[in-house]
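Exercise 3.2. Students should predict the tertiary structure of the chain below and write it as structure tokens, then compare their answer with the key that follows.

Predict this chain's 3D structure.
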Amino acid sequence: MKTDPAKLRFGALLRKYRNRAGMTQQELARAAAVSQSAVSELETGAKGTTRDYVTRLDAALIARGVLVNSWDAYFSPNGMIDYFKETADREQDSPEIRQYGLGLVPGLVQTECYARAITQLGSPHTTPEQVDSLVRTRMRRQEILDRPHPPVFTAILDESTLMRTFSDPGVMRAQINRLITLSYRPRITIQVVPMMTEGHPGLEGSFKLMTVSDGDELAYIEGHQAGLTIKEPRLVESYKRVFGELQGTALTVPDSRARMAEIRGELP
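Answer key:
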């Protein structure tokens, strides 16, 4: 029987955090009050487990929610769209994330009301329960920015993204407020590419760049109902060049804050 790739990835993540903590499987089992066989089966991907067990393992390894969030991403019903699960897992352990948004604010800095609005608009036939689950999962993903040692996060937004209107005018105002507030954090950079910029390289669409724990880099691009993780170095390097060009085109951080405040005041 073929082993579930999600179980293998989660097992590898658990093993990495156990090794980082300098613990044997037996020591981790004792600290988390689970059996050693359960730890071994999880690390090899032989079996799954419950969220309660993962919570105990996370606490014993002082993983600060990485294991719990990864388990939720992979195994919680309706918790995440399937094609995004691997990227979300890498995101939880990434020391640096860079993202360009054309049309939508990146998920890691969305407000709950914004996330709910775009989920409902993008998937109109999704049940209220599924919408609630997807939004909760997105909010849990954002916890990485509140850790004692969060990743370095850089977001570049096309100005048109901030001018989107919703039936509830408070949705975008609250979202811009959050972006301005987050932009003052020392490890977060948020910049805006002005609408008047001619033919900038980001017009082809949004993308995300992540440095993963082994030092490799990957890019992720997402469409309406599909996503693609790119690991080929030549292609990743191409996206890195585009991101660098966008940074050069974007307003400075202080000017970006000022522009976001202006847009907020112009919203209906």
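Discussion points: Residues 5 and 45 are 8 Å apart (CA to CA). Residues 81-266 form a domain with the Endonuclease; Chain A fold (CATH 3.30.870).
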